[in-house]
Design brief:
single chain; 4 helices; mainly alpha; two-stranded antiparallel ribbon; elongated; 152 residues
Length: 152
Amino acid sequence: MVITGMRAIDLPRASITQLMTRALRLRCPHCGGTRIFASFFQLKANCPSCGLRLERGEADYFVGAYLFNLIAVELILFVCVCGFVFITWPDPPWDLITYVTGFLMLAGCIGCYPFAKTTWLAVDLAIRPLSPEELRWHQDGGEVGDRELPHL
């Protein structure tokens, strides 16, 4: 339990399923709070519900989210292209496939981006569970460049 100001916050550890479900619903993976996005491409600094800093204290935190985004889009396109080639075999329209997959790659990168950010945060919370000390550090506005982060 963390005491912040006048209220106490329990830190129950969410299961991996709960973390991922919340992330795929574009909610805070830690508490399930809504409105964590300032815009389609930008997370707010902290979760409005629990106060978790959504970058967890590292300046390059979302490099993992970029990787998740790339992998998700590549897997989706791979399945779609293989399915389309299978359906149209023995004479697949290669030119059409080339142009459509180029467009879908760009659209997929944009469309999957917010999901990649929340999913990466959920994976990070599963690997490095949030401690009461770290949550207090997030709520108190600890500096992102601090060397002595409570979760390390």
